Amino acid sequence: MAEPEAAAAGRPGELSILFVGDIVGGIGRRTLLDCLPVLRERYAPEFVVVNGENAAGGLGITPKIADQLIAAGVDAITLGNHTYHRREIYPYLDAQPRIVRPFNFLRSQPGRGTCVVEHDGVRLGVVNLSGNLYLRAGRSAFTEIEVALKELEGVDHVLVDMHAEATSEKVAMGWHLDGRVTAVVGTHTHVPTADARVLPGGTAYITDAGMTGPRGGVIGVKREQAIESLLTQMPTRFETSEEDPWLMGVLIRCSQPLRADSIEQVLMPRPPASAEAR
Ligand SMILES: [Fe+2]
Ligand SMILES: [Fe+2]
Questions:
Q1: HSE-CB for 270 with a 13 A CA cutoff
Q2: Could you tell me the distance, in angstroms and rounded to a whole number, from the CA of residue 10 to the centre of ligand 2?
Q3: Is position 163 annotated as part of the catalytic site?
Q4: Over 90: is that where the pLDDT of 13 sits?
């Protein structure tokens, strides 16, 4: 039987982490801002981590948007293949300690791949990785994760956002890190997978957390434009769909360092009242 939420939250040693999948455009940001108070009341997460690689008009992120997410109580922002779409983010990636780009990008590229955030003395390390299949990443996720984990030695929990196209790479990373980190969550495909579980060694895992954006489009894009592009095979203008926005992510509960007790999917439509108000 599920424990009462109030008792589960706040007990010494017990905490929860809300991880939110790729925020797509303004509609994704508004959906996050509208859903977050409801989710805070429901789960009282100690940490909120979001993937923000599509937060600016569907591609990349700007300092202003990152600041807005942090002001809303987001503890850390992860990114992915669209990290460098907006030039203005480059210096911000070096200066703002709460935002990470894939650790296994080249060392010469702006930004860092790990960060540590703290809540009531509990330290959560966050690592962003990029898959190497069909995505551009200068170094191997599988070798570089060891360097990243060394950087995070001594933290209480570690969450890894494995931003990858191929399910095989994400599943393999889950097994590779099982028993060594609190959670491995996949992002990038924008479609949530039905395989959330705690692996035998105690690491929470999901192949893809999904996106926070319009379910009425094609992974974020207006569906007419996506279909037109596939039909004609010609260059097509892509705009972010506004239809049927949902927040998608996972809630991870923990009671021991570097281990998870449970992982559950969070799939929530944008609350209708606030959608009308905007
Ligand atoms: Fe994405
Ligand atoms: Fe991506």
A1: 28
A2: 34
A3: no
A4: no
